[in-house]
């Protein structure tokens, strides 16, 4: 199991002291957070892509390349790379470059995004979002897996004998996750290619995501990539920790109540009851996180939203210290105990290369090399 954090890159006023960090402060904070993620033994650092205030992460690969130079072990990923409005040629080149700079510690989550105005900003029509997703994913896979690509589609100019550069490291493309919170077609696309499916289940009740993940697993097996229970599933989560639950609730409540994504909506208590958000003691975070397997089956990646809602950097780093000391070791032990013998390791560059050399599907690898795995 890969365990890590993701950020949506919001710039939010701290409701407890009414201070607002600058864009520069938030951008540079990511380096400190990533170094802390590696220090405490987590596996993945992922950032989102947005092109509008109050968010600032418009160029994830630039940021991740900077983080790669400051770290040695963690996987560098995205919480969303917009497959609808980015040119797949540029995605192919940017992430192959990131692969080389990070020695293979790079993958990505493709998604349609959740900001409607982004489509016209990049010359696209939101009515074409599913068509753009299907067409661009298809081209992206070809660009990484074929040396010379001749291609014609509906939504971009044709390519004639085009070679994307640099080529993927070791001729192994970065592993692709597909992020979705509502679209069955995305689950189908992920299954078709044998890619991963990341269900960022931080807002809606679990029953909704059970349907999407169930569809992805069923179609993953249909397309011959492995059994349904071996499919590559990732989940989101959120936590705020204190040594006792009363302190956690008292400290986090003003941030929750004023958060741009869910403030002034359901109560903190209702939200923690209906979603993966856990505000409480280390044991409560452990128990809530381990319960995800009961609903969604064995899975491969667990990411937590950690630096949002105006939480100051000092608090975020302290939260990670608490997680590393009290929660992470227990999750590691329990995940290792629960892992079926034929459940494939979480995908890494090393495991994908080993599967390719062995001539088998990655989901059919047993105990493949994966330094970030439990």
Task: Briefly note the structural class of the backbone.
Answer: alpha/beta
Strand order of the largest sheet: 3-2-1-13-10-9-8-5-4
Number of helices: 13
Extract low-pLDDT stretches: 368-374
How many strands in all? Answer: 13
Classify the oligomer.
single chain
CATH superfamily assignment? Answer: Luciferase-like domain
Describe this structure in words.
This protein is α/β, with parallel strands linked by helices and 374 residues long. The chain has one domain: Luciferase-like domain (TIM Barrel), CATH 3.20.20.30. It is 43% helix and 14% strand. The chain contains 13 helices and 13 strands. Strands 3-2-1-13-10-9-8-5-4 form a nine-stranded parallel sheet, with helices on one face. It has a two-stranded antiparallel sheet with strand order 6-7. A two-stranded parallel sheet has the order 11-12. A hairpin with a 7-residue loop joins strand 6 and strand 7. Helix 3 crosses helix 5 (129-145). The chain is globular, with a radius of gyration of 20 Å. Residues 368-374 have low confidence and may be disordered. Residues 1-295 form the Luciferase-like domain.
